[in-house]
Here is the input.
Amino acid sequence: MGVGSVKEVGPVQAEQMVLNIGPQHPSTHGVLRLKVKTDGEIVSEVIPYIGYLHRCFEKHAESITYEQVIPFTDRCDYIASMNNNFGYVVAMEELMDIKVPERVEYIRIIMAELNRIASHLLALGVYGLDVGAFTPFLHMFRDRERILDIFELTCGARLLYNYMWVGGVSHDLPRNFESICIDFLDYFEPNIPEFNELLTKNKIFIERTADVGVMPAEVAISYGVSGPNLRGSGVKWDVRRDEPYSIYNKFDFEIPVGTGEYGTLGDCWDRFWVRMLEMQESCKIIRQALKTIPEGGDVHAMVPKKIRPPKGSIYRRTESPRGDLGYYIISDGSEIPFRMKMRSPALTALSVLDEISAGWMISDVIAILGSLDIVLGEIDR
Amino acid sequence: MIVDYLIDLIPFAADWPGLVFVSVVVLCAVPVFMFIAVYALVAIYGELKVSSFMQDKVGPMGQGVGLHAGKWGLLQPIADALKLILKEDIIPTTADRKLFILAPFIVFIGAFISMAALPFSQTIIVADMNIGMFYILAVSSLGVLGIILAGWSSNNKWSLYGAMRSAAQIISYEIPAGLSIIGVIMLTGTLSMQGIIEHQTGFVWGILPNWIIFQNPFTFLSFFIFFISGVAECNRTPFDIPEAESELVAGAFTEYSGMRYAFFFLSEYANMFVVAGVAVAGFLGGWQSPIPGLMDSPGWGLFWFMSKSLFLIFLMIWFRWTWPRLRVDQLMSVCWKGFIPIAFVNIFGIGLWKLIIG
Here is the structure.
């Protein structure tokens, strides 16, 4: 099985059929439409059509004040809202030259990493669903639920937090946060080997994902793919390490990369596995941060009364669970952004879909799409 | 058979043989239909609860107040059935209306008439034909016809994909299933279901039941080939590619709703029971007790047959909620490159074993 056997079927060609996957389809991860040209089960071309969830985020941002943009960033990648907030406030603080209190930096990193775990849990669970395994999905959602509870405790919201402000965070950590968080990590970390037993190392799962949708490193780089998808192809690139923002350089963590353990380097299994390992690394970062977080101080100390950045522009990228999330902000000196652009990691991941899924079967297209972990809210914005 | 018996028994019956025939058919069919309906409710409840416990949740539960699902959610399957009955029956305008309506019944008939030859106990069997096993293998594959019709008549590309996958899958997996049964027939020398079970009476060394699965290593393997092929014939995970929710929406059943969909659902569960029943009768001693002297009076036959079958159905449910789904070409290569060669070796092995050891 693998690349060869499916692609060798090439010469036996019948009339091609156009098949619409979506916008109403169980596994397009949102409202995405894939126009697929198929010859029987074998797919020759996949054209993604996007825009069903377009909410004019960038245009809208040009008519609202800087602090009003933050709730909109929540709604872009609604699976990892904390990370989206994080990217925006980091860019704004660099533009305005604000130095936030150290405690705030710690809080932000704890939240961002918790949200990374939550996001990866969703990605991995739904990927199980894509290849037909229902139970791991619910196990992972059970654990994600506990992270959402922690967020609810911290800022009152479970999905769209609006937690990080320019210059601070909306609320300080609640009492007992440390013990609650440690409890969660102690509970969660032993679950990861269980997930591996149930899904990752399952023979059928390996058959379905190893060697499928191979994305070589050069293809990934030329398409601008980033995050776990790029690392799955064996490229050790992580903005947290290579262009440290906030205080990520204070923490000790590994950057897991794909190794092609069961198939070829850069296959669906590698991308899946990288996410699994990243959850462990995030746990490590949270533990370190909880140990060294400074006490006291007002989390609103550096929040400016009025956000009026100087004339100029800034591009800052951060590592969201889906990859390099960049914000390009042009300020004309007023309270309203002149132009706002978001570089979406999921969009670049989607753009590579045709390249890596041509020649595979319909089932594989679903598996490849799932392994790229796209969020349509972020693609369409 | 029963008809002749009744004609002899009732003095005036000979005047209306047609009437006797019809009433016998109805008398046999109604209990079987009732059985399928009740069993499906139990199986659906089992599926809900087993999946719930595997997934760290409680499943349907009720507080016993108002319109709830009853204690422990026992009324949930009834509520589900009622919901399906009350739902609007949608037939797409572009569908081939006649075939669309016909398809669910053909699928159901395949599962329904195979029940006729299942030996529930020494006495409870609709027709103990001398070709019972052959009959079941033959009619149980009728269902695929209905699935193809459903896929074709829906006028939907997803349905067509599902139907084509289903046809390829069921026809392929018929072969290893049939070949494994040949081993059973070679050992027992009969095609009658009761004959096959009676052959498995007794115990080896007083402990190990003399079931065909334990008679020699090849039959042991045959059982697993038969059972796994059976799971594939029922379109259950990990072989549920014709339905493949995440790929094909609902495969051949995409356009069906309400009672018509319920019929497909019902036949899936009925098919599971047929597969489990044949596996129990062919390999696991049918209605015979597994422990010497324990509840082996004829009255317990039904109990043993049902518990063995339900255990196999539990295994199928377990598979479904644990494993991912295979891809269509992997499914085929498992069958043609794995099961069929092993099944042929098994036939040879069973023959050799019978010749040398006895």
Observations:
- The domain at 3-51+100-307+347-380 of chain A is CATH 1.10.645.10 (Cytochrome-c3 Hydrogenase; chain B).
